[in-house]
Amino acid sequence: MKRDSAKDDPASNTLEKKSWFARHKLLTAVGAFVLLVAAIGALNGAGDGTPDDIAAAPVTTADAREEAEPAEEAALDEQEQAERRAAEEAEAAAKAEEERLAEEERLAEEAAAAEAAAAEAARIGSVAQQNAYRSATDYLDYSAFSRSGLIDQLEFEGFSTGDAEFGIARLESEGGVDWNAQAAASAANYLEYTSFSRFGLIDQLVFEGFTAEQAEYGVSTTGL
User: Fold this and answer.
1) Which residues of 39-59 are buried (b: 16+ CB within 10 A; e: fewer)?
2) Euclidean distance between the first and final Cα of the chain, in Å?
3) Do residue 107 and residue 157 come from a single domain?
């Protein structure tokens, strides 16, 4: 039987295989190109990363510090502004309180001055009352009078009863008259020009307007 020389010959088989790649050079080149493009795409994908990959990538310490610094600076600015506002508000409140206290003090001083002026006006009285006061003082400088006797004398001079009583009351409040001393002076004056018994002189002083106690005191100073 005749053997197929192409199948049995190894050199012939190798030649046949080489001749297949040779016969398919275009397909081989296209396949290589596709593999190259795929490899490049894979490398680019691994290097660049998708947005999701970037978002999922861990943040480094430097990146975190750079992001935190503006936030810290903003927080410090807000704190400084808050502290400055608080200081300004406190200063304004202190100034307002100082002004309020000063105003209260001024009003209190004005009220006190007005009260003092009113008290002084009430003390010295009207013009007529002041004149009655001066006239009463003048009478007591040269003669002894009982209280009621001095009022009668002022009324005789033309002063109203109210003005006369005011002038004498002012004398009493200022310590300008001592009725016991007036009774003693009046008793001594009576004894200078006439004689009296103790009881007669007491009656005379009571008649002049002294109280019984004042008359007894005045007579007792004479030795009766």
Assistant:
1) eeeeeeeeeeeeeeeeeeeee
2) 204
3) no
Does residue 178 lie in a domain region?
Answer: yes
78 with 98, same domain: the answer is: yes
pTM over 0.70: no
Please tell me the distance from the alpha carbon of residue 133 to that of residue 125, in angstroms, as a whole number.
Answer: 9
Location of structure tokens 């861990």: 58
pLDDT tens-digit profile of 139-184? 999 999 999 999 999 999 999 999 999 999 999 999 999 999 999 9
How far apart are the C-alpha atoms of 34 and 41, rounded to whole Å?
11
The string of pLDDT tens digits covering residues 93-104 is: 999 999 999 999
Flag whether pLDDT at 25 surpasses 50: yes
d(CA 186, CA 180): 10
Number of domains in the chain: 2
Domain limits for position 95: 71-124
Q: Which residue has the tokens 């430097």?
A: 62
Same domain, 206 and 141: yes
Query: Cα separation of 32 and 39, whole Å?
Result: 11
